[in-house]
Amino acid sequence: MDLYTELMVVDTRYESTWSENRHEVLNRGELHAKLLKEKVHKTHERIQDYQLFRRSYETNEFPLTIVISGVPGIGKSTLVQKILYDWARGEHYQRFAFIFLFKFRDLNHWREPASLVELIVKHHPCLSNLDRLRKVLRKPENLLFIFDGLDESRTSINFKDKPLQTYSNPEYFTTISTIVTSLMGQTVLKGCSVVITSRPTELKSTNIKSVERCTEIIGFLAEQRKIYFKRFFSDEKVSKEAFDYVRQNDILYTMCFNPSYCWILCSVLKSYFTKENKRQQRPKTISQLFADFICNILTNHKREADNPRDLLTSISKLALYGVCNKCLVFDNRDMDSFRIQSSRFLSGFMKEILQKEESFNQLVYTYLHLTVQEFLAALSPLLDTTADMTELLNKADSYEDGRVEILLRFLSGLCHTGTRDKFTETLGPLSAESICKVIDWLKTKTERELQQGNNRALLNTLHCLYETQNTTLIRSTVGNQKSLKLTKLNLNPVDCYVLSYILTCCTEIETLDLSESQLGEEEVSKLKPGLNKCKIIR
User: Fold this and answer.
1) pTM to 2 decimal places
2) DSSP alpha helices (H): ranges in 365-491?
């Protein structure tokens, strides 16, 4: 808990601002920027991590059911650990005599029917004495059940559907789904408290009206980001230099709302701002940042593999499979099908998690972070000589839910020679043929979006072009236009930063049409360098 930095948690009914065709991290990044601009303390009630169960102002009663939502890496599981840590130390949550933590990934392979008592005994063997456990369950008001990671459940749990039969006895056998919904619905152990954590994408199946407190972790605000940097870097001068550099880069700074990105960014920048290894070319784009991060892992683990390229090719192929199929957790069957074995080299990229089941334990695997998985997925067709890049790009164009939005930005970023060359020493050259196909795809896609007038799709493509840092490519695709139209969009500061960069690369664009797009003072300030290139602005 040494690096633990307070997260921004707000009390909010699940807002219908979720866009199903946007990548969830980008989607929530926009909400975060919006809340900052609106001064979050005026629009949403802030909750400290130890106040989750405070009395409701409306009813003056303690909430019994709570949902904690947040994008991957934002700190949901960390917050759960903080709850347990504070409870065990006797600092907070002392009205609970027992806290039972269950992870949905552990429940995925649990044989059904099952009982709540069975689950408790398996996860908490100290309560294996049935008479003692029955005594504990007689006082449900002293019990807190936490179910972490609803989004990782392989069973559809719909809180809107009423169970076919009422589940009221914790010793009765039924489905895992019924146990969870019955605890939330207070038909079993009435008076107990229940917390469920989830990514926002899964909450569409939840009947929020039945939840007494709905919260969302929106991550770090400005001051918390600075605190995190100070805690990460032991040298205050280095901390300030690193933070000042990030503060000047809108792309990197905006991503710092997510604690996982903060950790990755600090890990990479450490080598740029220490006397032992001061490099000159610091990362400017997300692609460059993650390329550095993966290269650092390769450097630290390359001695643990006879052929790191072959191993990383298999790991990246699994990552691509996971991104395309929206899979974050992999079991031994997945690992075997991609010929991946547990090793110290693998541990640099994936976490092994001991999954508890009813009669035995097994290992499951996840990547260090969803975005690490997405970057490795982008590396896959550049490492794998048998990959069909054209097929992958056509397949990516067919997805309408944003699942490959960041992957495509990474693919574009890997077209940058300097970014690509970082891998040459350890892995050898990446596929030049695949790179050419990505560039051709970018040219075709940009031309199509300009002609069809799909403003959101065009904006996404501009982000891809920014990642390439290729002014020649930008001029040949966008720069030959006399006008650029991006109307009826909610542009955030990062969108405007990217748009400004695109405009400064082009000399032919005379008219910029942003009519009916929402622009605040900060957005306009980010656009200014590019606006100076335009004669007409609408």
Assistant:
1) 0.82
2) 370-383, 389-398, 405-413, 417-421, 424-427, 432-452, 455-468, 471-477
